[in-house]
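Entry 14. Two folds queued back to back today. First construct below, sequence then structure tokens.
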Amino acid sequence: MVSEPNGPRPTLEAVAARAGVSRATVSRVVNGGAGVRAAVQERVRQAVTELGYVPNSAARSLVTRRTGAVAVVIAEPEARVFSDPFFGRQLRGISRELAAADLQLLLMFVEHRADYDRIGRYLSAGHVDGALMFSLHRDDPLPAMAERAGLPTVYGGRPDWASGTQGPRPLYVDTDNRGGARQAVRHLLGRGRRRIAVITGPLDQTSAVDRLDGYREALGTAEPDPRLIADGGFTAAGGERAMAELLDAAPDLDAVFVCSDLMANGALRTLRARGRRVPEEVAVVGFDDLEPAAWADPPLTTVRQDVEEMGRLMARLLLRLLAPGTAAGADAVELAPVITEARLVVRESG
């Protein structure tokens, strides 16, 4: 008989009595312990279902030494995260994998420098089993915090910490940013464009650096015309501003590779305002192939990366780190960084 919704909460002892086993046996089954026969496990699970028993999470943590929670730390302000579809897609992939593993997601942002102390204290206090961190900047203290806490961690994006860490090489998931940028610029060159500008993201992030390097490689020069390079900060407003700077500095430009679709939408607004026809006068190629590419007018030629899959892969790597028998933070042979494919998608803007 299932307990009444407002009645007494079923206890471990009640489950043990219903299943005809000891309290310790019920505890082992409920907490995933070994050494219980399959038939006995089935009786216990049936009793749990019949009584509506819900394990006490605090008691369970004492047995398993697990919290059942994972911190997802995004080193950006909350407003930036919720205005950029990139983060939503990545979080969706992460959330689905963690939910399937019955783990809770704890989302943390960095609004101010003071937030690092708060996040560091939380991570080192044993509140979570592991962490997923992304959108980190070169001088970010988060990796060192995770290492000091001994916390299994997977990163989104190729690490390039200024000070380096003393532990095993970091586990991360990234896309082929450099290769994707090369595809974009070679496409523009193949369309006869010769004055190709670039709008980068912040150059203290490896994704922006790699895309700028791919741009340089495709042009075949280590030092392109500095008038053709502007930083858009990975935001739509930044893309709008950077495009204006480029047109002022190099009015003869005939194409622009924009290192995110969000910035590309801003760049298109500026081009329209300046009376530049796209793609007749200025061809535009973005990077991401997320919602802003569909919003663009004209539809945006862009480099596709599977952001949701990247989130899933990050979560899967962390789950493997947390699996029994894998030392926390160990650089096991089967665990290695993952680089996903970037592929050009041609539409009207380019």
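Second construct, same run, same settings:
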Amino acid sequence: MPEGGASIPNTAASPAGGGAPDTAPAAAPDTAPVGAAGGGRAAGPEPRGTTAARRTSLLVTLLLGGLTATPPLAMDMYLPALPEVTRSLHAPAATVQLTLTACLAGMAFGQLVVGPMSDRWGRRRPLLIGLAVYVVATALCAFAPTVELLVACRLAQGLAGAAGIVIARAVARDLYDGVAMARFFSTLMLISGVAPIVAPLIGGQVLRITDWRGVFVVLTLLGLLLTVVVWAKLPETLPPAERHGGGVGEALGSMRRLLADRAFSGYMLVGGFAFASLFAYVAASPFVMQEIYGASPQTFSLLFGLNSIGLMIMGQVNGRILVGRVRLDRVLGAGLAVVVVAAAALLVMALGVFGEAGLVPVAATLFVLMSAMGITLPNTQTLALMRTRHAAGSASALLGTTSFLVAAIASPLVGIAGEDTAVPMAVVQLTAALVALGCFLGMCRPWKGRTGVKGGGV
């Protein structure tokens, strides 16, 4: 496989049925959708490939999975250490919570910077710079003497860590199209989905032998290892001929054209509000499951892990069974419908319409909701990125920033009615799911046939 800075061509097209041919008429830049239909690439049989090509695909998958898993590791490994940080730095709990908010905000806004940079200078250079800054910022977190400096370092960590998230999606768009891209995102979800499961376990084990600073030492070493492997093994996927030569003005113009594409904006909002429904579960479930429905910490950890496994399994069902056989917009619509029904059932149980619900029905409904995310999220990203070909970095930045910002706004609302009811969590989840479904129907308009032929193309 190509190594170092060598570029590899975009040879992985979608299987039959995904996307429009290259001969489609060029769109007017200010009025037409971004990119030609189907991403501007011919739809043909997925290449069988040589051994080297298959090896490249495997390495890219593993590396991009590692890049997308790094931010969840940085967030979740640190969670068990929050009480100790409060005592160690003699800071209020609310101030220590800002270290999480700062990291999340950094991940959101960092993508808006790194995405356009990768469209101009290629994927490798911004990615390696981001990883290097991430390693330095994480190391500084380990030695922060005050909570204020820790918040600042966590902000820098999030800003730099955003490079892995946004460029991973852009690289996927460089290499894959249509059905192949949908399958790749499902595989990527399998790899990155392991992180939320193992991160708290790793953090807890690290705290058995060291203090909270040791968690950041481990994260620093993992970041350093990933940086070295990316530098040695991840090739450049955006050829110089396809890069933008403009500056900030062109980047902003590219984002403006993306947002002017109603279907792209629709998928962007669908993904953002679906992610908000998921994040409401992450933010509220520890309290809801343990304090309201009586789950022990061990039981909660088991249920949390099972929900993550359900999400990953459905991601594989999506990539290996549904994609290529069913239109992506239909799969996405079905996933959104399941999320809406599950969220509505949670609200009914939380309100006690049919009597007091126990732990088992609530846990089962949350399992259904979370598993449906394995269908919803990868197909949303695929259909959005298929709207663009030459601004994949900017498109990926808008997708990621929207998801993080909407989730950051939604997550505090789950506790708005106090600590005695699960109604706020269910209301936030149902509202977010309904808005996502409304955006899908009102903006993407799948019934018009523009959002995908069988297997995927737009």
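Quick look at the second one. The chain is about 70% helix and 0% strand. The radius of gyration is 21 Å.
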